[in-house]
Amino acid sequence: MTAPPPIAGTQGPRRDAPAWTKIEMIFDPGERERFKAAAHGLRAVGPDATSTVLATHEDTDHVKQRFQTRRSERRYDEAPLPLDQLAALLEQLRAVIIDGKLKYGYGSAGSSYAVQTYLYAKPGRVDDLAPGTWYYHPVQYRLFAIRPDARIESSAHYFENRAIFESSAFSIFFIGRMNAIAPLYGDKSRDFALIEAGLMTQALELAATDAGIGLCQIGDLQFARIRDLFDIAPNDLLLHSLIGGPLAHYLREA
């Protein structure tokens, strides 16, 4: 991904919040489901609108099958996750040296690769991996212990996500190291880091099922309560997180 160069004078704070941030939120579960089912993300087009039909290269059943491999899993097998399966997942974020330069399987603004990956392993839930927080090094392709004594309680998550966390074996946190990108893109840095975190998430989700792992993206949590468990810098930001664990059917069929 190639990002545009920074514009002079964009280092200051953003302008007033846009109007969409003031739209009233829906909290009732039934109303939320009805709102999502209405597919408001599709543009309304009239019956007389000019259009061009695109040829399809896959039959619908094949598309459905392919898309179903990328799905959110909210319940996991109680058996410990083999470390090799976790390694197969994290390998999607690995960096290699080609012609003297680091290359990743996803893009980053200005090749800054400012998003770091941290892992929390729950006690007894990942074979051959001690519980606690770990830093995943994409070049050395290994996990470095941060806080072996770290324990994250389900109360760090909002109520609707606590049962998912309790069933899980591990959590992944994408942390934006803003000092590694802000000198390049100023106040646009968080936006570009979020895009990078999204690409990393997609890479993991596409590989998860083959690795026998289920993943669920977590939109938000009370990160301030657990921030010190990762030993990160003051300017570092939590961009996104996922919860994961072994797929029951994968273990039964292995």
Q: How helical, in percent, are the residues?
A: 25-40%
CATH level-4 homologous superfamily: NADH Oxidase
**What structural class do helix, strand and pairing data support?**
alpha+beta
- Note the gap between the termini: 38 Å
Task: Please characterize this protein's 3D structure.
This protein is α+β, with helices and mostly antiparallel strands and 254 residues long. The protein has a single domain (72-253), classed as NADH Oxidase (3-Layer(aba) Sandwich). Helices cover 26% and strands 19% of the residues. It has 7 helices and 8 strands, in the order H-H-H-E-E-E-E-E-H-E-H-H-E-E-H. The strands form 2 sheets. Strands 5-4-3-6-8-7 form a 6-stranded antiparallel β-sheet, sandwiched between helices. Strand 1 (96-98) and strand 2 (101-103) form a beta hairpin. The longest helix has 20 residues, at 189-208. It is globular, with a radius of gyration of 20 Å. Residues 6-13 have low confidence and may be disordered.
Task: Furnish the topology, listing elements before pairings.
Layout: H1 29-37, H2 60-68, H3 83-90, E1 96-98, E2 101-103, E3 115-121, E4 132-137, E5 142-147, H4 159-167, E6 170-176, H5 182-185, H6 189-208, E7 213-218, E8 237-246, H7 248-253
Antiparallel strand pairs: 1-2, 3-4, 3-6, 4-5, 6-8, 7-8
